[in-house]
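Severity: low
Component: inverse-folding endpoint
Summary: output formatting inconsistent between runs
Steps to reproduce: submit the following structure tokens with default settings.
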């Protein structure tokens, strides 16, 4: 089949969506399919990762127009609902879903939040690269407890006020340390925490995360949060925000949720107090991006 992906793989410190594009492209090509990144003639499947214009200016309306004069079918993966300050994307997703022949949601929360009320669809949880499973091990908590988070986006809903609070707390607590990996909003600087800038080295990221004890995320309304999946694959229990969206679907068996700053600190303490229990649970997390791509390819082949 000739399959059009409306996003091209890129290198560097990009989020989980790009990793999924890369793996799907590789898998389809290895399976004998032709993968294209522009609306050339004779496309069988249009796989939409994002209904907004790509680098060529092709967007969802172009897909609708293409279908009118072809037998192509549209699969839409709703990896982003625009909940992080992108209202135009939210409206575009609402507009485009009814025109899609099949919709893939990365979480139960994303399906519910989208308002999808019919048609063919599947909930397929995101999965981390296998690299993130490579360094995990069953071990005791460090004497000086290591807390970590990582974000490539600097959006307001990533929870920076909570990370700033933890930075202040550890300034008066010699039993805790905090590591932030990724990008920081302009003007934000931690006084007591370690900071590592974002890079595209997944092996370094996996090894670094696996050396920590507890993963903290204060991100809210994530349609398909890959950062927590990477943390769990590294063997870290997760302290997560109760408004995390997909994070609740992904992490409910592997950590503790919180709603405010005080609850966050209590959740961290609870994980510390019962660390062997939470560590053992998260060591059982075994999903990978390969499992996800297998399901995507099955959808593609079944639809045609």
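Observed output (run 2 of 3):
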């Amino acid at each position: 089949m000739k399959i059009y992906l409306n996003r091209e793989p890129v290198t560097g410190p990009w989020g989980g969506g790009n990793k999924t594009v890369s793996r799907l492209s590789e898998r389809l090509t290895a399976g004998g399919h032709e993968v294209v990144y522009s609306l050339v003639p004779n496309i069988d499947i249009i796989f939409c990762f994002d209904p907004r214009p790509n680098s060529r200016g092709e967007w969802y309306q172009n897909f609708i127009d293409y279908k009118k004069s072809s037998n192509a079918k549209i699969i839409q993966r709703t990896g982003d609902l625009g909940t992080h300050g992108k209202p135009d994307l939210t409206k575009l997703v609402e507009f485009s879903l009814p025109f899609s022949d099949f919709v893939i949601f990365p979480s139960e929360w994303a399906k519910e939040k989208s308002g999808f009320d019919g048609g063919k669809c599947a909930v397929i949880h995101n999965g981390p690269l296998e690299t993130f499973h490579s360094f995990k091990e069953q071990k005791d908590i460090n004497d000086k407890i290591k807390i970590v988070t990582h974000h490539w986006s600097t959006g307001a809903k990533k929870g920076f006020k909570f990370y700033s609070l933890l930075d202040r707390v550890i300034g008066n607590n010699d039993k805790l340390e905090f590591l932030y990996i990724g990008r920081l909003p302009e003007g934000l600087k931690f006084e007591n925490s370690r900071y590592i800038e974002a890079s595209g080295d997944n092996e370094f990221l996996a090894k670094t995360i696996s050396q920590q004890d507890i993963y903290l995320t204060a991100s809210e309304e994530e349609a398909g949060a890959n950062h927590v999946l990477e943390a769990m694959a590294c063997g870290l229990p997760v302290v997560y925000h109760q408004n995390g969206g997909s994070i609740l679907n992904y992490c409910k068996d592997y950590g503790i949720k919180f709603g405010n700053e005080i609850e966050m600190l209590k959740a961290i303490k609870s994980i510390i107090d019962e660390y062997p229990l939470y560590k053992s649970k998260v060591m059982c997390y075994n999903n990978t991006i390969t499992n996800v791509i297998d399901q995507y390819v099955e959808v593609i082949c079944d639809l045609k």
